[in-house]
Amino acid sequence: MRIGEVAAGAGVSVRVLRYYEEQGLLSAQRSPSGQRHYGETAVDRVKLIQQLYAAGLSSKAVAQLLPCVDTKTSTPEVRGRLRHERERIDRQIQELLAARAELDKVIHTAENPGSGYTYVA
Fold first, then answer.
1. Which among 89, 77, 56, 69 has a CA at the least distance from the CA of 26?
2. What is the rounded distance in angstroms from the CA atom of residue 34 to the CA atom of residue 84?
3. 3-class SS of residue 2
4. Which of 13, 110, 69 is nearest to 61 (CA)?
5. What is the DSSP letter of 40?
6. What is the dihedral of CA 73, 77, 80, 81, to 10 degrees?
7. pLDDT confidence of 119, banded at 50, 70, 90?
8. DSSP code of 33?
């Protein structure tokens, strides 16, 4: 696949793909004219990278984890890192749920004046 096809399939820009290559997260073969050609799994890999970034992992962390994905193996250190990241995400989820609950109260008060909800900072 050419770079534009991968970008379109993964919903990212060509610039993002070049960045992933620079970071060692994605690789491409080069044609004699210098064009990038990606394997059939490139779109799925880019989507995985995007999910890991969305989960808050740094490019360094993603680079450390991808070889485990590629080989379907892991070390105790990697598993520990993954557990740590999952715990961090769980904390973020709880914080977001609490913020949503407060927002719901504010919305309820705005829609029902005099309902008695008072914001306390």
1. 69
2. 41
3. strand
4. 69
5. T
6. -90
7. low
8. T
